[in-house]
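Bumping my old thread because nobody answered last time. Still need a sequence for this structure:
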């Protein structure tokens, strides 16, 4: 019987409604917009812009890796070259 009373009490106790989530905003050229107020076309372009920005970031990281590798290969090449000095008399 205790179970029935507990269930009944739970059914009568209203569940609190969570507060509404704050509206998402986006800042474009110094102007803040509610994301919900943008047209579908604007939202699509915003997604495209975010994807391109992420790709640029990835490419910059890749470029830094490649430049580091190039420097390592150049240093290894110099180390593998035969010793040659034009300053020593023959």
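Sorry it took so long. Here it is:
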């Amino acid at each position: 019987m205790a179970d029935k009373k507990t269930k009944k009490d739970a059914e009568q106790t209203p569940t609190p409604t969570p507060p509404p989530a704050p509206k998402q905003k986006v800042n474009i050229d110094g102007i803040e917009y509610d994301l919900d107020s943008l047209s579908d076309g604007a939202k699509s372009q915003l997604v495209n812009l975010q994807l391109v920005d992420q790709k640029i970031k990835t490419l910059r990281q890749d470029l830094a890796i490649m430049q580091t590798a190039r420097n390592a290969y150049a240093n290894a090449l110099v180390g593998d070259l035969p010793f040659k000095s034009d300053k020593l008399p023959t």
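The radius of gyration is 32 Å. Let me know if any region looks off to you.
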